[in-house]
Write a structure and sequence with these properties.
The chain is elongated, with a radius of gyration of 48 Å. The protein contains 20 helices and two strands. It has a domain of about 30 residues. It is mostly helical.
Amino acid sequence: MKAIVVLLFIVLAAGAFVGEKLVQDPGYVLISYDNTTLETSIWVLLLFSFFAFLLAHWSLNLFFKFSLPTKQIGIWRKNRIARTAQKRTFKGLIALSEGQWWQAQRLLSQTAPIAAQPLINYLGAAKAAHEQGNVEHTDAFFAKAREVAPDAEVSIGLQEAEVQIDRGNSAQAFITLKRLHSLAPKHTGILRDLADLHQGQQDWDGLIALLPKLRKQKVMSAEQLAEIESNCYTNMLSTVVAKLPVESSSDSRVKALNRGWKALPNNLNQSASMIVTYAQALIAAKAPDDAEKFLRAHIKRTWDNSLIGLYGTIETSDTARQYNLAISWIKKQPQQASLQLCAARLATFNQKWQEAVIHFEKSISIEPSIDAYRSLAKLLESLGEHDKALEASHKAMELTEDLSPSIPLPALVEPTPVVEEPNIEPPKSASA
Protein backbone atom coordinates (compact mmCIF):
# COMPACT_ATOMS: atom_id res chain seq x y z
CA MET A 1 0.00 0.00 0.00
CA LYS A 2 2.86 2.37 0.84
CA ALA A 3 4.55 1.62 -2.49
CA ILE A 4 1.38 2.58 -4.40
CA VAL A 5 1.11 5.85 -2.48
CA VAL A 6 4.77 6.68 -3.20
CA LEU A 7 4.36 5.81 -6.91
CA LEU A 8 1.21 7.94 -7.14
CA PHE A 9 3.05 10.81 -5.53
CA ILE A 10 5.90 10.52 -8.02
CA VAL A 11 3.48 10.46 -10.99
CA LEU A 12 1.66 13.54 -9.71
CA ALA A 13 4.93 15.38 -9.14
CA ALA A 14 6.17 14.51 -12.63
CA GLY A 15 2.84 15.60 -14.13
CA ALA A 16 2.98 18.90 -12.27
CA PHE A 17 6.54 19.44 -13.45
CA VAL A 18 5.73 18.66 -17.09
CA GLY A 19 2.60 20.81 -16.96
CA GLU A 20 4.54 23.75 -15.61
CA LYS A 21 7.12 23.39 -18.37
CA LEU A 22 4.36 23.25 -20.98
CA VAL A 23 2.99 26.53 -19.70
CA GLN A 24 6.38 28.22 -19.45
CA ASP A 25 7.79 27.11 -22.81
CA PRO A 26 5.91 24.60 -25.06
CA GLY A 27 8.91 24.52 -27.44
CA TYR A 28 8.84 24.59 -31.23
CA VAL A 29 9.51 21.88 -33.79
CA LEU A 30 9.53 22.35 -37.57
CA ILE A 31 9.74 19.40 -39.89
CA SER A 32 10.11 20.14 -43.59
CA TYR A 33 10.28 17.66 -46.44
CA ASP A 34 10.10 18.77 -50.05
CA ASN A 35 7.24 21.31 -50.13
CA THR A 36 5.55 19.96 -47.00
CA THR A 37 6.18 21.33 -43.53
CA LEU A 38 4.93 20.24 -40.11
CA GLU A 39 4.98 22.59 -37.18
CA THR A 40 4.19 21.53 -33.60
CA SER A 41 5.35 21.88 -30.05
CA ILE A 42 8.03 19.60 -28.69
CA TRP A 43 5.66 18.08 -26.13
CA VAL A 44 3.11 17.12 -28.76
CA LEU A 45 5.93 15.56 -30.79
CA LEU A 46 7.05 13.53 -27.79
CA LEU A 47 3.47 12.35 -27.12
CA PHE A 48 2.99 11.45 -30.80
CA SER A 49 6.29 9.59 -30.83
CA PHE A 50 5.20 7.58 -27.74
CA PHE A 51 1.93 6.50 -29.31
CA ALA A 52 3.66 5.79 -32.63
CA PHE A 53 6.05 3.47 -30.79
CA LEU A 54 3.15 1.60 -29.17
CA LEU A 55 1.38 1.26 -32.52
CA ALA A 56 4.53 -0.04 -34.22
CA HIS A 57 5.15 -2.54 -31.39
CA TRP A 58 1.60 -3.86 -31.56
CA SER A 59 1.74 -4.10 -35.37
CA LEU A 60 4.97 -6.07 -35.30
CA ASN A 61 3.59 -8.54 -32.76
CA LEU A 62 0.44 -8.99 -34.79
CA PHE A 63 2.48 -9.53 -37.93
CA PHE A 64 4.66 -12.22 -36.37
CA LYS A 65 1.62 -14.01 -34.98
CA PHE A 66 -0.12 -14.17 -38.31
CA SER A 67 3.08 -14.99 -40.13
CA LEU A 68 2.76 -18.64 -38.84
CA PRO A 69 -0.97 -19.38 -39.24
CA THR A 70 -0.42 -23.08 -40.13
CA LYS A 71 1.25 -23.86 -36.81
CA GLN A 72 -1.43 -22.08 -34.78
CA ILE A 73 -4.22 -23.78 -36.70
CA GLY A 74 -2.49 -27.15 -36.27
CA ILE A 75 -2.25 -26.70 -32.51
CA TRP A 76 -5.88 -25.60 -32.31
CA ARG A 77 -7.01 -28.55 -34.41
CA LYS A 78 -4.95 -30.99 -32.33
CA ASN A 79 -6.43 -29.66 -29.10
CA ARG A 80 -9.94 -29.87 -30.53
CA ILE A 81 -9.43 -33.50 -31.60
CA ALA A 82 -8.05 -34.37 -28.15
CA ARG A 83 -11.06 -32.78 -26.44
CA THR A 84 -13.45 -34.63 -28.74
CA ALA A 85 -11.70 -37.95 -28.17
CA GLN A 86 -11.72 -37.45 -24.42
CA LYS A 87 -15.41 -36.58 -24.42
CA ARG A 88 -16.42 -39.57 -26.59
CA THR A 89 -14.21 -41.93 -24.57
CA PHE A 90 -15.90 -40.74 -21.38
CA LYS A 91 -19.32 -41.36 -22.91
CA GLY A 92 -18.19 -44.81 -24.04
CA LEU A 93 -16.98 -45.75 -20.57
CA ILE A 94 -20.26 -44.56 -19.05
CA ALA A 95 -22.17 -46.68 -21.57
CA LEU A 96 -19.92 -49.63 -20.71
CA SER A 97 -20.61 -49.29 -16.99
CA GLU A 98 -24.36 -49.08 -17.66
CA GLY A 99 -24.38 -52.21 -19.83
CA GLN A 100 -25.14 -50.40 -23.09
CA TRP A 101 -22.80 -52.70 -24.98
CA TRP A 102 -23.46 -51.66 -28.59
CA GLN A 103 -23.13 -47.95 -27.85
CA ALA A 104 -20.01 -48.53 -25.74
CA GLN A 105 -18.36 -50.59 -28.49
CA ARG A 106 -19.14 -47.95 -31.14
CA LEU A 107 -17.91 -44.96 -29.12
CA LEU A 108 -14.77 -46.60 -27.75
CA SER A 109 -13.68 -48.30 -30.98
CA GLN A 110 -14.25 -45.21 -33.16
CA THR A 111 -12.37 -42.96 -30.74
CA ALA A 112 -9.46 -45.35 -30.08
CA PRO A 113 -7.22 -44.17 -33.00
CA ILE A 114 -7.29 -40.55 -31.75
CA ALA A 115 -7.51 -41.21 -28.00
CA ALA A 116 -4.71 -40.26 -25.63
CA GLN A 117 -4.79 -43.77 -24.12
CA PRO A 118 -6.07 -46.07 -26.88
CA LEU A 119 -5.46 -49.17 -24.74
CA ILE A 120 -8.38 -48.23 -22.50
CA ASN A 121 -10.62 -47.80 -25.54
CA TYR A 122 -9.71 -51.14 -27.12
CA LEU A 123 -10.07 -53.09 -23.85
CA GLY A 124 -13.44 -51.47 -23.20
CA ALA A 125 -14.55 -52.20 -26.76
CA ALA A 126 -13.41 -55.83 -26.36
CA LYS A 127 -15.52 -56.25 -23.24
CA ALA A 128 -18.54 -54.67 -24.92
CA ALA A 129 -18.14 -56.95 -27.96
CA HIS A 130 -17.77 -60.01 -25.71
CA GLU A 131 -20.93 -59.15 -23.80
CA GLN A 132 -22.75 -59.10 -27.15
CA GLY A 133 -21.33 -62.51 -28.05
CA ASN A 134 -19.27 -61.14 -30.94
CA VAL A 135 -16.18 -63.37 -30.82
CA GLU A 136 -14.55 -61.99 -33.97
CA HIS A 137 -14.69 -58.36 -32.87
CA THR A 138 -13.57 -59.23 -29.35
CA ASP A 139 -10.42 -60.96 -30.58
CA ALA A 140 -9.76 -58.14 -33.06
CA PHE A 141 -9.92 -55.52 -30.30
CA PHE A 142 -7.51 -57.53 -28.16
CA ALA A 143 -5.11 -57.67 -31.13
CA LYS A 144 -5.40 -53.88 -31.58
CA ALA A 145 -4.72 -53.40 -27.87
CA ARG A 146 -1.48 -55.38 -28.20
CA GLU A 147 -0.46 -53.25 -31.21
CA VAL A 148 -0.88 -49.92 -29.42
CA ALA A 149 0.46 -51.11 -26.04
CA PRO A 150 2.80 -54.09 -26.39
CA ASP A 151 4.14 -53.51 -22.86
CA ALA A 152 0.68 -53.93 -21.30
CA GLU A 153 0.49 -57.70 -21.86
CA VAL A 154 -0.48 -58.39 -18.24
CA SER A 155 -3.50 -56.09 -18.31
CA ILE A 156 -4.60 -57.32 -21.73
CA GLY A 157 -4.02 -60.98 -20.86
CA LEU A 158 -6.01 -60.74 -17.61
CA GLN A 159 -9.09 -59.49 -19.41
CA GLU A 160 -8.57 -62.00 -22.20
CA ALA A 161 -8.42 -64.84 -19.65
CA GLU A 162 -11.72 -63.68 -18.15
CA VAL A 163 -13.27 -63.76 -21.61
CA GLN A 164 -11.93 -67.28 -22.21
CA ILE A 165 -13.41 -68.46 -18.92
CA ASP A 166 -16.78 -66.94 -19.83
CA ARG A 167 -16.64 -68.78 -23.14
CA GLY A 168 -16.13 -72.04 -21.25
CA ASN A 169 -12.59 -72.43 -22.55
CA SER A 170 -10.97 -73.12 -19.17
CA ALA A 171 -7.99 -74.92 -20.69
CA GLN A 172 -7.02 -71.91 -22.81
CA ALA A 173 -7.62 -69.58 -19.87
CA PHE A 174 -5.31 -71.70 -17.74
CA ILE A 175 -2.57 -71.45 -20.40
CA THR A 176 -3.03 -67.68 -20.58
CA LEU A 177 -2.88 -67.25 -16.80
CA LYS A 178 0.20 -69.47 -16.48
CA ARG A 179 1.96 -67.35 -19.11
CA LEU A 180 0.97 -64.15 -17.28
CA HIS A 181 2.13 -65.66 -13.99
CA SER A 182 5.57 -66.22 -15.50
CA LEU A 183 5.64 -62.54 -16.53
CA ALA A 184 4.36 -61.21 -13.18
CA PRO A 185 4.72 -63.90 -10.49
CA LYS A 186 3.62 -61.55 -7.69
CA HIS A 187 0.54 -60.15 -9.40
CA THR A 188 -2.37 -60.69 -6.99
CA GLY A 189 -5.02 -60.55 -9.71
CA ILE A 190 -3.35 -63.34 -11.67
CA LEU A 191 -2.94 -65.47 -8.54
CA ARG A 192 -6.58 -64.96 -7.59
CA ASP A 193 -7.79 -65.95 -11.07
CA LEU A 194 -5.54 -69.02 -11.05
CA ALA A 195 -6.97 -70.04 -7.66
CA ASP A 196 -10.54 -69.60 -8.92
CA LEU A 197 -9.73 -71.63 -12.03
CA HIS A 198 -8.17 -74.49 -10.04
CA GLN A 199 -11.17 -74.50 -7.74
CA GLY A 200 -13.62 -74.44 -10.62
CA GLN A 201 -11.86 -77.39 -12.26
CA GLN A 202 -11.64 -79.18 -8.90
CA ASP A 203 -7.89 -79.39 -9.35
CA TRP A 204 -7.17 -79.69 -5.63
CA ASP A 205 -3.53 -80.70 -6.07
CA GLY A 206 -2.87 -77.62 -8.21
CA LEU A 207 -4.62 -75.35 -5.72
CA ILE A 208 -2.67 -76.87 -2.82
CA ALA A 209 0.58 -76.12 -4.70
CA LEU A 210 -0.59 -72.52 -5.22
CA LEU A 211 -1.52 -71.92 -1.57
CA PRO A 212 1.95 -70.78 -0.38
CA LYS A 213 2.04 -68.07 -3.06
CA LEU A 214 -1.51 -66.95 -2.20
CA ARG A 215 -0.50 -66.69 1.44
CA LYS A 216 2.82 -64.94 0.76
CA GLN A 217 1.29 -62.28 -1.50
CA LYS A 218 -1.72 -61.87 0.82
CA VAL A 219 -4.11 -62.38 -2.06
CA MET A 220 -6.92 -63.16 0.39
CA SER A 221 -7.59 -62.77 4.09
CA ALA A 222 -6.23 -65.32 6.56
CA GLU A 223 -9.76 -66.64 7.16
CA GLN A 224 -10.42 -67.12 3.45
CA LEU A 225 -7.09 -68.90 2.93
CA ALA A 226 -7.76 -71.18 5.91
CA GLU A 227 -11.16 -72.10 4.48
CA ILE A 228 -9.68 -72.77 1.03
CA GLU A 229 -6.90 -74.88 2.54
CA SER A 230 -9.36 -76.99 4.54
CA ASN A 231 -11.61 -77.40 1.51
CA CYS A 232 -8.65 -78.42 -0.68
CA TYR A 233 -7.39 -81.15 1.61
CA THR A 234 -10.90 -82.39 2.35
CA ASN A 235 -11.63 -82.82 -1.34
CA MET A 236 -8.18 -84.22 -1.97
CA LEU A 237 -8.70 -86.98 0.59
CA SER A 238 -12.20 -87.67 -0.73
CA THR A 239 -10.97 -88.10 -4.31
CA VAL A 240 -7.73 -90.03 -3.75
CA VAL A 241 -9.38 -93.41 -4.27
CA ALA A 242 -11.39 -92.23 -7.28
CA LYS A 243 -8.15 -91.35 -9.09
CA LEU A 244 -6.80 -94.89 -8.73
CA PRO A 245 -7.47 -97.59 -11.34
CA VAL A 246 -10.66 -99.56 -10.77
CA GLU A 247 -8.70 -102.78 -10.37
CA SER A 248 -6.58 -101.34 -7.52
CA SER A 249 -6.38 -103.54 -4.43
CA SER A 250 -7.55 -102.50 -1.00
CA ASP A 251 -3.94 -102.20 0.17
CA SER A 252 -3.11 -99.85 -2.70
CA ARG A 253 -6.07 -97.65 -1.83
CA VAL A 254 -5.12 -97.51 1.84
CA LYS A 255 -1.50 -96.64 0.98
CA ALA A 256 -2.66 -93.83 -1.32
CA LEU A 257 -4.89 -92.49 1.45
CA ASN A 258 -2.03 -92.68 3.94
CA ARG A 259 0.17 -90.62 1.63
CA GLY A 260 -2.59 -88.05 1.36
CA TRP A 261 -3.04 -87.94 5.13
CA LYS A 262 0.68 -87.47 5.74
CA ALA A 263 0.67 -84.53 3.30
CA LEU A 264 -1.76 -82.60 5.54
CA PRO A 265 -0.37 -79.59 7.42
CA ASN A 266 -0.10 -79.94 11.19
CA ASN A 267 -2.95 -77.51 11.76
CA LEU A 268 -5.35 -79.78 9.84
CA ASN A 269 -4.47 -83.32 10.85
CA GLN A 270 -5.86 -82.68 14.32
CA SER A 271 -9.15 -81.26 13.04
CA ALA A 272 -12.20 -83.39 13.84
CA SER A 273 -13.76 -82.69 10.44
CA MET A 274 -10.57 -83.78 8.66
CA ILE A 275 -10.34 -86.92 10.80
CA VAL A 276 -13.93 -87.77 9.85
CA THR A 277 -13.14 -87.16 6.17
CA TYR A 278 -10.14 -89.49 6.25
CA ALA A 279 -12.05 -92.23 8.12
CA GLN A 280 -14.93 -91.97 5.63
CA ALA A 281 -12.41 -92.27 2.78
CA LEU A 282 -11.06 -95.45 4.37
CA ILE A 283 -14.58 -96.83 4.66
CA ALA A 284 -15.22 -95.98 1.01
CA ALA A 285 -11.98 -97.76 0.14
CA LYS A 286 -13.45 -100.89 1.77
CA ALA A 287 -11.02 -100.79 4.67
CA PRO A 288 -13.38 -100.59 7.69
CA ASP A 289 -10.87 -102.16 10.09
CA ASP A 290 -8.31 -99.45 9.25
CA ALA A 291 -10.98 -96.78 9.67
CA GLU A 292 -12.03 -98.19 13.07
CA LYS A 293 -8.43 -98.34 14.30
CA PHE A 294 -7.78 -94.78 13.12
CA LEU A 295 -10.94 -93.42 14.73
CA ARG A 296 -10.39 -95.30 17.98
CA ALA A 297 -6.93 -93.78 18.35
CA HIS A 298 -8.21 -90.26 17.82
CA ILE A 299 -11.23 -90.71 20.10
CA LYS A 300 -8.86 -91.61 22.92
CA ARG A 301 -6.97 -88.34 22.35
CA THR A 302 -9.89 -86.05 21.49
CA TRP A 303 -13.48 -86.72 22.52
CA ASP A 304 -15.73 -85.40 19.76
CA ASN A 305 -19.36 -86.22 18.98
CA SER A 306 -18.72 -86.35 15.23
CA LEU A 307 -16.03 -89.01 15.76
CA ILE A 308 -18.30 -91.00 18.10
CA GLY A 309 -21.18 -90.78 15.62
CA LEU A 310 -19.05 -92.10 12.76
CA TYR A 311 -17.58 -94.86 14.91
CA GLY A 312 -21.04 -96.32 15.41
CA THR A 313 -21.54 -96.71 11.66
CA ILE A 314 -18.41 -98.80 10.99
CA GLU A 315 -19.05 -102.52 10.66
CA THR A 316 -15.71 -104.23 11.13
CA SER A 317 -14.69 -107.86 11.29
CA ASP A 318 -15.02 -107.72 15.11
CA THR A 319 -18.20 -105.80 15.91
CA ALA A 320 -18.45 -107.44 19.34
CA ARG A 321 -15.21 -105.76 20.43
CA GLN A 322 -16.52 -102.45 19.11
CA TYR A 323 -19.75 -102.79 21.11
CA ASN A 324 -17.89 -103.72 24.29
CA LEU A 325 -15.61 -100.71 23.80
CA ALA A 326 -18.64 -98.45 23.45
CA ILE A 327 -20.10 -99.88 26.68
CA SER A 328 -16.83 -99.10 28.48
CA TRP A 329 -17.07 -95.52 27.22
CA ILE A 330 -20.67 -95.27 28.43
CA LYS A 331 -19.62 -96.26 31.94
CA LYS A 332 -17.33 -93.23 31.98
CA GLN A 333 -19.82 -90.85 30.28
CA PRO A 334 -23.36 -92.23 30.62
CA GLN A 335 -25.06 -88.94 29.74
CA GLN A 336 -23.63 -88.65 26.23
CA ALA A 337 -26.49 -88.93 23.71
CA SER A 338 -24.10 -89.49 20.81
CA LEU A 339 -22.40 -92.31 22.70
CA GLN A 340 -25.73 -94.04 23.44
CA LEU A 341 -26.65 -93.73 19.75
CA CYS A 342 -23.25 -95.18 18.80
CA ALA A 343 -23.78 -98.15 21.14
CA ALA A 344 -27.30 -98.70 19.75
CA ARG A 345 -26.02 -99.00 16.21
CA LEU A 346 -23.18 -101.27 17.23
CA ALA A 347 -25.70 -103.44 19.10
CA THR A 348 -27.65 -103.92 15.88
CA PHE A 349 -24.47 -105.14 14.15
CA ASN A 350 -24.32 -107.81 16.86
CA GLN A 351 -28.09 -108.55 16.60
CA LYS A 352 -28.64 -107.42 20.17
CA TRP A 353 -32.03 -105.99 19.36
CA GLN A 354 -33.36 -105.27 22.84
CA GLU A 355 -30.06 -103.70 23.93
CA ALA A 356 -30.22 -101.52 20.81
CA VAL A 357 -33.76 -100.40 21.69
CA ILE A 358 -32.60 -99.48 25.20
CA HIS A 359 -29.64 -97.46 23.88
CA PHE A 360 -31.82 -95.66 21.32
CA GLU A 361 -34.34 -94.73 24.01
CA LYS A 362 -31.59 -93.52 26.37
CA SER A 363 -30.10 -91.38 23.61
CA ILE A 364 -33.52 -89.85 22.94
CA SER A 365 -34.14 -89.22 26.63
CA ILE A 366 -30.84 -87.33 26.89
CA GLU A 367 -31.15 -85.40 23.62
CA PRO A 368 -33.91 -86.16 21.10
CA SER A 369 -32.67 -86.40 17.52
CA ILE A 370 -34.20 -87.27 14.17
CA ASP A 371 -31.60 -89.99 13.51
CA ALA A 372 -32.30 -91.73 16.80
CA TYR A 373 -36.08 -91.62 16.33
CA ARG A 374 -35.90 -92.89 12.74
CA SER A 375 -33.49 -95.72 13.57
CA LEU A 376 -35.63 -96.72 16.54
CA ALA A 377 -38.77 -96.68 14.38
CA LYS A 378 -37.17 -99.00 11.79
CA LEU A 379 -35.99 -101.39 14.50
CA LEU A 380 -39.35 -101.48 16.29
CA GLU A 381 -41.15 -102.04 12.98
CA SER A 382 -38.90 -105.03 12.28
CA LEU A 383 -39.56 -106.35 15.77
CA GLY A 384 -43.32 -106.20 15.15
CA GLU A 385 -43.99 -103.37 17.59
CA HIS A 386 -45.93 -101.31 15.05
CA ASP A 387 -47.59 -98.88 17.44
CA LYS A 388 -44.31 -97.90 19.06
CA ALA A 389 -42.65 -97.66 15.65
CA LEU A 390 -45.43 -95.34 14.44
CA GLU A 391 -45.05 -93.19 17.53
CA ALA A 392 -41.27 -92.90 16.99
CA SER A 393 -41.85 -91.92 13.35
CA HIS A 394 -44.25 -89.19 14.44
CA LYS A 395 -41.67 -87.89 16.91
CA ALA A 396 -39.07 -87.75 14.12
CA MET A 397 -41.50 -85.81 11.94
CA GLU A 398 -42.08 -83.31 14.74
CA LEU A 399 -38.35 -82.60 14.87
CA THR A 400 -38.13 -82.20 11.08
CA GLU A 401 -38.35 -78.63 9.87
CA ASP A 402 -41.59 -78.09 7.97
CA LEU A 403 -40.71 -76.27 4.72
CA SER A 404 -44.17 -76.58 3.15
CA PRO A 405 -46.08 -73.33 2.54
CA SER A 406 -48.77 -72.48 5.06
CA ILE A 407 -52.38 -73.02 3.97
CA PRO A 408 -55.67 -72.10 5.66
CA LEU A 409 -57.19 -74.97 7.62
CA PRO A 410 -60.72 -75.44 8.96
CA ALA A 411 -61.40 -75.16 12.64
CA LEU A 412 -61.12 -78.39 14.54
CA VAL A 413 -64.58 -79.98 14.64
CA GLU A 414 -65.36 -82.34 17.45
CA PRO A 415 -66.86 -85.58 16.13
CA THR A 416 -70.55 -85.98 16.85
CA PRO A 417 -71.13 -88.94 19.21
CA VAL A 418 -73.25 -91.71 17.76
CA VAL A 419 -76.24 -92.53 19.97
CA GLU A 420 -77.50 -96.04 19.59
CA GLU A 421 -81.26 -96.42 19.70
CA PRO A 422 -82.60 -98.93 22.22
CA ASN A 423 -83.75 -102.17 20.75
CA ILE A 424 -87.44 -102.29 21.81
CA GLU A 425 -89.23 -105.39 20.73
CA PRO A 426 -93.01 -105.21 20.23
CA PRO A 427 -95.06 -107.04 22.87
CA LYS A 428 -96.15 -110.51 21.95
CA SER A 429 -99.87 -110.91 21.49
CA ALA A 430 -101.66 -113.26 23.98
CA SER A 431 -102.89 -116.45 22.49
CA ALA A 432 -106.60 -116.93 22.59
